[in-house]
Structures are given as structure tokens and as C-alpha cells.
Design a protein that fits this description.
With 336 residues, this protein is mainly α. It is built from 16 helices and 8 strands. It has a 3-stranded antiparallel sheet with strand order 1-3-6. A 3-stranded antiparallel sheet has the order 2-8-7. Strands 4-5 form a two-stranded antiparallel sheet. A hairpin with a 2-residue loop joins strand 4 (214-216) and strand 5 (219-221). The radius of gyration is 20 Å and the shape is globular.
Length: 336
Amino acid sequence: MRAVLADPRFLVPAAPAAEPEAGMAWLRGAVSRFSNGAEHARRRARVTGLLDALDPVRLRREACERAGVELAGGARVDVMATLARRVPVGVLATRLGVPEDRREEVVAAVTAMAAAYHLPPAPGTASAGDAAVGVLAAALGEGEEPDPGLLAAVAGALIQACDATAGLVGNTLAVVARLPADLSVRWPVEALLAETLRWDPPVRLTRRVAAEDATAGGATVPAGAVLVLDLAAANRDPEVFPDPHRFDPARFDPARFDSDRFREGLLPQGGGHLGFGSGIRPCPGERAALALAAGVVEAALGHRLADPEIPYEPSPNLRVPARLHLESATTTEGPR
């Protein structure tokens, strides 16, 4: 799978360009996610420039503080409704130029855009995310039309930080909140996130299209064929991860990795999971996403599942809890 992700003959399915007035159709045609070649490199560079300028320590601290406010008091909280999208997207949006007083409005808009991002409407029909693109544009422009390239870069970064980060937060807490308190704090948050990305990743699949006749895994792939890459299955390859079906954060013990990179959640590409892709176009938001998720998970570590039944959102390639109710451990077990 890594060979396919590193092979320039395998492209992402591209979105056609559209006029700015077209809302989500325009956005799909303007972001780096659905482009290839030189255009992808140019658009990606703008996104990475924005994200690389951010301090991951500050992102994590702010996410932890905001999540802590929501969790204060020990009352039952639905993490997915109040924290998993709202905190990471809100923190990142303000760091990327959205005014604080428009934060919640933009969070709602990005959530709507993310829901419509991978599902183009039928020709001639409007997308549910069209109006949301306008909300983000107005917030970034502060009364003036923002630069289209900036709008696409910020929108793409926020959308990528929405559902996938929510899934990472939810999937991590779904397993960690079941553990005894002494076990849930045995490993650093970074190890919990890394093992969740391997064991129960929020992004399960990705696709590539063969631009020319090629081979993959010893099989001939004709030009135009679409490959569906099962990232979740690859993350449980027993030749890479011994006892792959066991949730074991010790796999990502900080002592095994460069300490500075590990604190930012960055693992050696050859020995890590595929939670953020690999090869030519790994996710440019890895560092920011891990910092934001770490802040939320850190704030919730003193909580336990209030309801062991966790439903999941219907999706062909994402695994995101629909609801995940937590309450303070002192509420269920009494003071310690």
C-alpha cells in the first residue's frame, strides 16, 4: 500500500473546476485535496504554509482549556455534540484568521461543509454546504471578498480538521474511557492517539486512479482503474504490528522515537501507522490535528463512559461516533 501511495502514476480522483459562485462545487475544484500534479503542489504549499506557522503547543493548550470548560462540573456530556468537532475546528479557525466573535458561526458552517465535501449533489441541484462556504468567506474577509486561494486553503484545512479529528477524539475516548483509571494515565496522550490511529482509525479508506498502466502488489492495473486502499486493514498487518488486534499504546512508547518529534505526534514514516496517509501526499494537517485532539483527550482523561453503547455515523470511509457520553469518574465511583 505504501508503494501505491508513493507512486506518481496513481492519482486522486480529481474534481472539476467551477465558478466561485458555485459554493461547494467551486471549493472541491479549488482545494488541494481533489487536485494532482503541479496544481496540487501549489495548493498544498499554501495550506502547509498556514499550518506550519501555528504553534502546536498553543493549539493543544487552548483545546485542552476549552474542552475542560465544557467538562467542568462532572455532568454527563456528549463529547461528539459539544467537543469533538466544536473545539478543534473553533481553535484552528481563530488561529487561521476567523474573528473570535464569529467562531461558533464558522464551526457550524465548517461542519455543514464537511458533511457535503465528499458527496457532490446531482447536476443542477444545490449543495447543503453552499451557504456555509459564504459564511466562512464573510468571516475571513470581514466585509470584503477574501482571496479565493486563501479561502480554499483555510476551508480545506478546517474541513480536514472536522470529521477526521472528531473521529480520532471519539475513537480514542471510546476505548480509553473504558479502562481503569490507573491504566488510562499509564501512557502519554500521544501514544493513545497513535495507537488509536492504528487500531481504530477515523479515516478507513482512500482511493487512487491509475493515470497509466501500472502494477500494484504484483498485479497489473490498467490505466483508469480505481484502487480502493483499505488503510484500516493495513494498520493491522501482523507483519508490521505484532498482535495487531490488541489495543496497546506501548507500541508507541516515547523512548522508541525522537522525543521532540514524538511530542508533536510525528512518528517515523516507515514504522508508523497509515492514519495520516503516506508517500506523495500525506495529510498536511497531521501536526495540528494531533495537537488539537491531544488537548481534548487530555481534558477528558478523568472521565468514564456514561453509556457503553456507542452508535457510529453512517459513512463509507469514516468511523466517527455519533454519540459518546462521558461523566466524571468521581460521579460514578465517588471521591478518591
